[in-house]
TrEMBL record:
Protein name: CoA-binding protein
Keyword hit for Transmembrane: no
Domain ATP-grasp: 756-794
InterPro entries reported in the protein's UniProt record: Acyl_CoA_acyltransferase, ATP-grasp, ATP_grasp_subdomain_1, CoA-bd, GNAT_dom, NAD(P)-bd_dom_sf, Succ_CoA_lig_flav_dom, Succinyl-CoA_synth-like
Domain N-acetyltransferase, first and last residues per copy: 37-193
Domain of life the protein comes from: Bacteria
Record carries keyword Chaperone: no
Natural source organism: Gordonia jacobaea
Key words, A-Z: ATP-binding, Nucleotide-binding
Disordered, as annotated region: 252-298
Amino acid sequence: MQTAPRDDHGEGERPRGPWDYPRHWIADVLASDGGVVHLRPIVPDDADRVVRFHSGLSERTRYMRYFGPTPTLPPREVARMTTVDHRNRVAIVAVLGGEIIAIGIYEGLAADGKPESAEVAFVVADEHQGRGLGPILLEHLAGAAAENGFTRFEAEVLSENPNMVAVFRDAGYQISRAFDGSTVHVEFTIDPTEAMLSVRNDRERASEARSVANLLRPASVAVIGASTDPKKVGNALLANIIAAGFTGPVFPVNGPDRDGEPDDEQGGSAHDAARAGATRQPQRRHRGPARAPRVRPPSVRGIRAYPTVRDIPDPVDLAVVAVPAASVDEVLDDCMVKGVRALVIVSSGFGESGEAGLESEHRLVQQVREHGMRLVGPNALGVANNDPSIALNATLAPRIPPLGRVGFFCQSGALGIAILDTAAHRQIGLSTFVSAGNRADVSGNDLLQYWDSDAATDVVLLYLESFGNPRKFSRIARRVSRSKPIVAVKSGKGAMSPVRAARTAAASLDDRIAQMMLEQAGVIQVDTIPELFDCASLFAYQPLPRGPRTRIIGNSSVLGSLAADTARSGGLEVESTIDLGAGASEDEFEASVAQAMADPGVDSVIVVFVPPVAVDLDWHARALIAGANTPDADADKPIVTTFLAVEGIPPGLMRPGPSGLPARGSIPSYSSPERAAAALARAWQYARWCARPEVPVERPDGIDPEAARTWVREAMWGLPDDDPGVDSGVDSGVDSDGSTVGGADPVTVLDDVDSARLLEWYGVEVVPFREVSTMHEASAAARDLGFPVAVKATSPAWRGRLDREGARLDLPDATAVVTAFAEISELTGDDVLHVQKMAPKGVGTMVRMRDDPSFGPLISFGLSGRTFELLGDDGYRAIPINALDADELIDEPRSAPLLYGYRGEAPVNRGALVDLLIRISTMADDIPEIREIVVDPVLCSPEGAAILNARIRIGPVPTKADTGPRRLS
């Protein structure tokens, strides 16, 4: 859990020893070159590591850090560096392969112990300089310092060390400098600013894209478990890599196992692996009398084989692993020694097999990251890159689509094979493909970061089984969607629910939330794989519509009507439907298409065609191509067709590219008019989203985030630690995000007074109320607040009842208040009641922010009351939201017209509602320890939005939070 900062007097702190640090400070991070580095607070056991680290520094690096030669660190200095209180003095080390490669430290400067300003310094091993570790350490030190109440960093830097000053400046901080002879004194506040967050996100994007590039653009590949048996997985992998024409060296690894049998006896058949996405467990069998071990084959598929990765004389960038799960640890050790940069593990027997397998998977990821590698899998189908300069097919798929400009990500291996086959059939060329299996490390978020900057990818396709880190997904997808369409299909109804038993009840709600969340990020959501490729065909080969006006041309009125109905239901406006008749000629089709393509009143064209009997069918394709490419045709107008129910790009409708494959301008065909119209409607929805203004997420005025953060963290002191029994984190089995797998998630619900107080720091005012226990207190509170007032029960069973038996409203005087107090006390048995000032009458609404386990932090809006709750009439958005998101969220519920002056009622103050939504979103964004906020009811009227009740729940920062310093999930 988070640790509370000191108060102004330095009192109330829990004692903290050198081993007692917040576990969420542990993090795996990506360096600028895409390699993984492990960060954690320093502990006394690091003394020997610190000495080795210091002795490995060059003389110049030591001079720049310590302002002198300092060839060795005195034992007293070593003890001081490794024994810190993790509050006034914090040191974070970067670890790779068990050794320290960088150290960052801050130390409080205030003489009275009051945290305000701290001196910061860090040093990076010479061989790791230039990897961006300095800015990473600075981010994490600043995050720790802010939690401990510090607001400013200072540093002393030698004048001849401008790179250090650049680290502070380039991190987005507004620094001030003062020169004093040979040194420069630097100061800056550590509060996160928009500039700093922008720099942080840009660096995150670059490092994550680089880490995926290391995976998809390797210079060399080793296939571990390569087999001479064509039925085995290792053989199939090696065959696919060779057949694709990989441009770098390929190294088969086929070493004897512990029983003397070569690895090629350990896998299942290639068919089984292709179906399951992994090798099966080894089968022990009676062998009879002992016999001499078989000789390891000197080559596999004509390529020299090696017993282990260590024996390969040349560097290895990517290792594709096809050995049983029990042998993966040994293989991993070899890859660590060899310095492999990325792994693809197709082996099964990990998280998908149960608790024991899940523990093995977590241990695998921890070991992979501690040695600087990235992992696809386990239980993966593999990866592919169609770039001719790479030509990598490290998958078990027997068929890979040709080169194109579409990137594809999915998890399931079996589904991946079907997807690749469908893509090839539909002429959807791929730039890159990743099937991540259990997605233990590399996820769809990583691929989005890569595709965002990949010039070879124009369209992104995702098959989502879950969002991984949903908040990060929303942030990245919103940015990528601005330049590249993202089409996503999610698996099954309620598939986002993490607990299977809860899926039936949660399925409908989960599906609605997923749809709203994807729409908010500009992602085009579809329900099936055919619809996924329907959209891909359009986005890959045709422009986006500039408006909704659609013309339908065809030789069947029935098919034209089907297309028109689907188009209208998808938000298109059918400008006209032209029925040319069953006997229409080639010239008539060409003229109608040419006229539509040239008409400025038409934004898109659908051509439906039923082939007449005994005619040359090629004329239809000729007519479409000719009509779409006349001199007067608008090249930025999309056109789709149904051509003989063919899916994809028929030869007659293809505009050949340089490689002979379909290029932009090819006309996609669909098997039915409904599917053609549906794809076009989704393209228009996406085009409309792209045309929305890019409204920034602005912070409202009149807020005090620091006071609110301090109060929340102090309030959390009473909560149990989220990682009991964990010591240094060096070898503790702590997950990469600092949380214990399967551990408790302690939370506490704030009372009404504390909830109102916390909201007040963000400019959200609850209608004034008093807690009272006696008639005398009730009468005094009413006089203090001013009549009229309400007296209300406080127990959950009596709040929000439709019969309003738990409240007495519009009480005009003290006598009425005393009477109401007596009645409600006797009726409910509540020891404490509320006396609250009456608010203006209005429409009851509810705003709720909650940390959803499937979708991350969400804000919802709907009308208040059990009826609307039962109907599920709410809208949802991922936070943070901007003003446009808030405005759209208000319109999301079906009952929203009640707010706009329904049946002569005065419309509510919409601006007040938007402001309330933004303030609650900002509060949840600033303080991730806030796990839920419920303001219900909010009475909306022309005068404003009056909050009658508020409840806030706080707890440790969720493991999927997308806040604070950069880290891998």
